Amino acid sequence: xxxxxxxxxxxxxxxxxxxxxxxxxxxxxxxxxxxxxxxxxxxxxxxxxxxxxxxxxxxxxxxxxxxxxxxxxxxxxxxxxxxxxxxxxxxxxxxxxxxxxxxxxxxxxxxxxxxxxxxxxxxxxxxxxxxxxxxxxxxxxxxxxxxxxxxxxxxxxxxxxxxxxxxxxxxxxxxxxxxxxxxxxxxxxxxxxxxxxxxxxxxxxxxxxxxxxxxxxxxxxxxxxxxxxxxxxxxxxxxxxxxxxxxxxxxxxxxxxxxxxxxxxxxxxxxxxxxxxxxxxxxxxxxxxxxxxxxxxxxxxxxxxxxxxxxxxxxxxxxxxxxxxxxxxxxxxxxxxxxxxxxxxxxxxxxxxxxxxxxxxxxxxxxxxxxxxxxxxxxxxxxxxxxxxxxxxxxxxxxxxxxxxxxxxxxxxxxxxxxxxx
Length: 422
Description:
Layout: H1 12-17, H2 19-22, H3 26-37, H4 39-76, E1 81-85, E2 97-98, H5 99-106, E3 111-125, E4 132-139, E5 149-152, E6 162-166, H6 167-173, E7 180-187, E8 190-202, E9 212-216, H7 217-223, E10 241-242, E11 244-249, H8 255-268, E12 279-282, H9 284-289, H10 294-325, H11 328-336, H12 341-373, H13 384-410, H14 414-417
Parallel strand pairs: 4-9, 6-8
Antiparallel strand pairs: 1-11, 1-12, 2-10, 3-4, 3-7, 3-11, 5-8, 6-9, 7-8
Helix pairs in contact: 3-12, 4-10, 4-12, 4-13, 10-13, 12-13
């Protein structure tokens, strides 16, 4: 029996099975009836759409995860402006801010508070596991830069042998409030171990795609990796140096003007300090966009997403184009018996949208199941709004790609289908 030959009588059993379909408007009847009769073929098309959806969503999640891992600390730090040394080219590892410069910043009009942080790489020793590499941050206690805890308490003392760990560190190590945490550092070419206590757990605060541990800045100076002992040859403790400072303003809405004003005041002042280098102040977005590789990484993954969507558009369009060419004769017969072209076109669009939507939903479910199996060390993160936009875009590309199939069906000639064309 021809798929579109709806004038032929059906057996009683088939009439019972297809009774709900036969009661639908003609476009829906044609679309659903063909899907039901060719389940295997349309399921394979839906599987292809699902795999494309999986690839697009996974790429989007990877882009968000990598981007977040590079910007997370900067994005969440409680500050209005970030201060770099003026010759650092906005690179945190290459920036140096002294305690004297921080005192200078605190004396300026319009500045509410100033904090700072210094970064180093160490390892957390976990029993029965491989050492976990973390970013160690030395912060000024109770000033901007110290993350807010979601469990436990904030740091108490400048010299306290205690730490705040972020959630990513807690997940990877299994540490909890009050647990001892052992830090392995390299001092004067020798490995040294330092025992601290977990005072609090902060929200995820990755720095450079690494989990983070925060300690008071004097504790940091004691345990950070260094080439020689902390005491200099003259017997004095070297001054503490930070990588960047964080400025809280009395009026955050005036951050652009305040950044320029602070830079000028530091550059022109002769009585605030003896520092030789100036400073460069930027907002948080500018800071993370200048993180090494951040912009290039996001651009690359963004282009990959665009090309994946274009490939999906072409693949879906090609599948339905082939499907349309196989039933040109049947469509011609429908036109010959008086079926309006718009009904045939609408039937094709309903069919394309239904199969594409099923494939997108299947792909979204596969992506969700895949994320459950991915270990926490893999930097993949899904932003709800971005994922929703991606799914809606994928729902749109199916009908767009299928327009070529609809056009082919609308151009079908009844006379050619009946073999009457000359």
